[in-house]
Write a structure and sequence with these properties.
With 307 residues, the chain is α+β, with helices and mostly antiparallel strands. The chain has 3 domains: 100 residues, Roll (Membrane-bound Lytic Murein Transglycosylase D, Chain A), CATH 3.10.350.10; 130 residues, Beta Barrel (L,D-transpeptidase catalytic domain-like), CATH 2.40.440.10; 61 residues, no CATH class. It is built from 8 helices and 20 strands. The strands form 6 sheets. A 9-stranded mixed beta sheet has the order 1-8-7-6-17-10-13-14-16, with helices on one face. Strand 6 and strand 7 form a beta hairpin. Helix 3 crosses helix 4. The protein is globular. The protein starts with a helix and ends with a strand.
């Protein structure tokens, strides 16, 4: 399949039927555990969730289709498989599905949006959590960090186009009614005291990319699932955590995200701070080497917690 044909099919909203029929809301719920500060048994903490998976490429699939099927962002899948052509991956090739995550810092209630990894964590009662891929603002249009709550919620929202966006339109429009041309999709959840919101999309391929003006996009099937379950006043925290350190089964791990050009020295400094905050004893020279060799989002083992 030529690249030109692929692009044309994407613009038409095409997707491989073998996966499209299987798309469904992401309903995986993960358990976590965080020991209180000063606990004598930190190895009992569990802040790494998910499991490793593989996918055998089918005829006609692209990374866009596969990422959506697994509720991953396009860039997550691309970064996990940098050697594979994302538009024409070889049929029957087994590719990595990066479905393991370290919980970020921040409050563990409501919604926590970690912008650098393009992912939201939805905390439930009983130390349970779900996670969903996001489309985020492009550079210079970042969602402001801070603590918010869910404000107004709208079904089939009308989009009142900001003036600066009207200026960029080939055919400027002040208002876009509900329907297939509306980039807000079917649902909108506003962030308190801001013009930003969490919403669906009429372009699922934008999820996992930096394409918005600061709002947050989810796959249509994921926002369908979340919208009725997230009531007004639900707390929302927007964070920018480029490094994460977590624990599972008595071992420590890290993940990094080089979003917005974060260099390895800045990431190393942040990693060291997190490692020390968890009272982990590791060889920092080895951490530096592991960081250099890591790809974004890759789960990297630091070692056993009792070493």
């Amino acid at each position: 399949m030529s690249l030109t044909l692929v692009v044309m099919l994407l613009l038409l909203g095409w997707a491989d039927a073998s996966l499209a029929n299987e798309w469904r809301p992401h309903t995986s719920v993960y358990s976590y555990r965080v020991e209180p500060s000063g606990a004598k048994a930190p190895q009992q903490s569990k802040t790494v969730i998910g499991r490793f998976q593989e996918h055998k490429v089918r005829e006609g699939e692209t990374f866009l289709d596969i990422a959506r099927h697994y509720h991953l962002g396009y860039k997550e899948l691309l970064q996990a498989n940098p050697e594979v052509d994302p538009w024409v991956p070889p049929v029957s090739l087994k590719i990595k599905i990066p479905s393991v995550w370290i919980l970020p810092r921040g409050s563990r209630q409501g919604l926590v949006l970690n912008i650098p990894e393009r992912r939201v964590y939805y905390y439930l009662s009983g130390s349970k959590v779900m996670t969903f891929a996001l489309g985020i603002g492009r550079e210079g249009r970042d969602t402001p960090p801070g603590k918010y709550w869910i404000g107004g919620k709208r079904v089939n929202p009308t989009w009142y186009v900001p003036i600066e966006i009207q200026r960029e339109m080939e055919f400027p429009r002040k208002v876009v009614p509900p329907g297939p041309d509306n980039p807000l999709g079917r649902y909108w959840m506003g962030l308190s005291a801001t013009e930003y919101g969490i919403h669906g999309t009429n372009n699922p391929w934008a999820v996992g990319r930096d394409v918005t003006r600061g709002c947050i996009r989810l796959y249509p099937e994921d926002i369908d699932f979340l919208f009725p379950r997230v009531p007004p006043k639900t707390p929302v925290e927007v964070i920018y955590q480029y490094t994460k350190v977590g624990e599972r089964d008595g071992k420590a791990y890290f993940q990094v995200y080089r979003t917005r050009g974060r260099n390895d020295q800045a990431l190393l400094n942040a990693l060291i701070r997190e490692i020390r905050s968890l009272n982990l004893v590791v060889d920092l020279r080895r951490v530096r080497q592991l960081l250099r060799e890591s790809t974004d989002g890759e789960l990297i083992p630091l070692g056993s917690l009792d070493m």
